[in-house]
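This part of the workshop introduces the protein records we will be handling. A record pairs a protein's sequence with a compact description of its fold. Backbone structure tokens are a discrete shorthand for how the chain folds in space. The question running through the whole workshop is how a given chain folds. The record below serves as our worked example for the rest of this section.
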Amino acid sequence: MRRRANRSSSEHNADIDMTPMLDIVFIMLIFFIVTTSFVKESGIDVNRPSASTGVSKAQANIIVGIRANGDVWIDKRLVDFRAVRANVARLHMENPLGSVIIAADKDTKTQALVQVIDQIRLAGIMNPAIATESESQ
């Protein structure tokens, strides 16, 4: 009789404690959330010009989009070119290590591009980059 009692009690103690595994899963989840970098897009699709000397930027967090008709987009919002300075300065304060990339349509007028570059420089960023497509595409 005693053997049967021991066997039935050992069957009840065979449950696996899931708490340590759940702790590890939550720690990994927190790690991935903290280490993920989020890229802010301009909010529009543009036909970028091609260039054979284009260089990839590792960290570009401020993207200014310019359509062919001269519309300027920052952070998925249409902005006046005179408001580019304030918006870029605000976004640069949020992420001082991020660079500014201008994604201009290849049919954009030079005047619109120069006005946006001027506003970005007035915001304190002296080296904005211009997004291009590689010529192999």
